[in-house]
Design goal:
Order of helices and strands: HHHHHHHHHHH
Oligomer: single chain
Number of helices: 11
Helix content: over 70%
Distance between the termini: 36 Å
Number of domains: 2
Shape: elongated
Largest sheet: none
Number of strands: 0
Length: 198
């Protein structure tokens, strides 16, 4: 949590007062092994890519590519949050070509090291049958594990599985229960879905 708050502080200060020399200083610190700075640079580039993508500009790919490279490097240095983000970038065609097998590698490394977003990523791959055999039981296992460890997305995907009968027997009761858990973990979608289920 401290890492995220620290990185968010760096990210916000750069968004409002970024000059080329600031980014060069950060690049240098990252190259010298400052993991927090590398993570912040990844977030900064990812956010820039998102903003430019929403305006439909080709420069977004440049920022995404740099972010993907930074996250992969941080993953190699055992930053498991970065592993999970790198996996998502491979699924979402952000700075790297879509490659579900690479995404699975990054998600697996994250999940094996107790990063629940990585487990959710593996669950999604098993649920869809992309880069893994379509297996509702495996998807359910990954989502349940993440939900038990208070990951709102794990709870949401589990709720949706029960709501739609996707890989499990359809159950309005269990769908509502897991939407409620997602809501307890601050998911606005979970709260809305829970309220809509009478």
């Amino acid at each position: 949590m401290k890492k995220i708050v620290f990185c968010l502080g760096i990210f916000l200060s750069l968004c409002f007062s970024q000059s080329p020399s600031d980014e060069e200083k950060m690049d240098e610190l990252c190259e010298n092994g400052d993991a927090n700075i590398c993570y912040a640079l990844g977030k900064m580039n990812e956010r820039s890519g998102m903003l430019l993508q929403s305006k439909n500009t080709p420069e977004s790919r440049i920022y995404y590519k740099k972010a993907a490279s930074l996250y992969q490097e941080q993953c190699e240095n055992n930053d498991y949050v970065s592993c999970s983000i790198a996996g998502n970038m491979y699924i979402n065609d952000q700075g790297v070509n879509v490659n579900h097998f690479k995404a699975k590698e990054f998600f697996s490394k994250a999940c094996e090291n107790d990063n629940q977003d990585g487990c959710v990523g593996l669950g999604k791959l098993h649920l869809s049958g992309i880069s893994a055999r379509k297996d509702g039981n495996m998807a359910k296992k990954y989502f349940e594990d993440a939900c038990e460890k208070k990951n709102q997305n794990g709870c949401l995907f589990l709720a949706q599985m029960y709501q739609n009968g996707d890989g499990v027997s359809k159950s309005k009761k269990l769908a509502k229960e897991f939407f409620g858990k997602a809501c307890d973990f601050d998911s606005a979608i979970g709260c809305a879905e829970y309220a809509n289920m009478k």
